[in-house]
Amino acid sequence: MLVALSNTPRDYAWGSPTLLAELEGRVPTGAPEAEVWFGDHPGSPAQVLDGSGRTLDEWLPTTPGAPERLPYLLKLLAAGSPLSIQVHPSKDQAVEGFAREEAAGVARDAGSRNYKDDNHKPEVIVALSDTFTALAGLRDLDQTRRLVDALGDDEGVRVLRQRLADVDPASALRGAIGWALGEASTPQIEQIVEAAASVISPEFAAEAALVRHLRAEYPGDPGIVVALLMNLVELRRGEAIFVPAGVLHAYVAGLGVEIMAASDNVLRGGLTPKHIDVAELLGLVDFRPAAPPRLEPRADDSGVELFAPGIADFALAHVAPSAAPARVTLRGVSIAVGVSGEATVTGASGTSVALAPGQAALATADEGPLVVSGGEVFVAMPGE
User: Fold this and answer.
1) How far apart are CA 72 and CA 314, in angstroms?
2) Cα–Cα distance between 19 and 358 in angstroms, integer?
3) Which residues are catalytic?
4) Looking at residues 356-382, what average pLDDT do you find?
């Protein structure tokens, strides 16, 4: 079965007032538009356009050849201002944390709730805008020490420098982040932020510009100090990062297509007025410094690119605009979304759906291989 889907944008405050409208070729509403969800997640299930009036979470359990739940959630994400710094738990951590909060009687909609479900939430984002700015993972410690050494000698900078002096990089970064989020005074945070915003350093000019941007959006937020310790990544259109469990990250600006495991588990580490559980966060973060977690696609003979991080929950195929049709092998129930041009997707049954940018369709596994012609399309599916 091949059927069209639709949904409306989520109006989170960090959303862009223009990026989704420009993608879809419509007049902006004037309100922030942050995400469009194409999946069966109960937070915003997609509408199935088969005349039944059902949402996808209602439709899947009654449809032959479809699972009761999808293992992934596909989104269009438009960041007009920075999202919170956050980390997601592993599967084992999610199971344990969810059971613990259930046993403690913490309401699932409570602001202090850390675990909304018992699943992990690895994610991939592919840039659709010319550039997409993100923070992802913790920077090489020698580089971070050079940055902090350039910030002068105010009290807050001295304490941060001391926290980063541990010979073990992971211990140093854990100590610095724990101090910034849980122990540092407001004047100490402001001293670091002011010094970083005004630092003159060719090596760290982009980081200084980011701090000025974050300071304007989140004045006094200790998460700005955490951001100073993270990899600043600028993706070009079509480039991707993969964020597994334990990796601190934040999306700063741009339009992307995102796929993740079907979960709502987020623990925040700054750049937010929302609840931050410092102790729980420190128990989840992988503090080992590493290069930015870029994900290179694999291309098949027909030119279809596959962003496959090697997990069972999801993979994401990319079909570029071409005069020749491309064939996308499906691993299970899949969702295609158009992102440029006028595309047509055709299933093995002969059914076709036209996809303008921002429009989506679901294909059951027996519709594979899916033939895509015309415009540019991403296809979400279960992983390897």
Assistant:
1) 6
2) 11
3) 268
4) 97
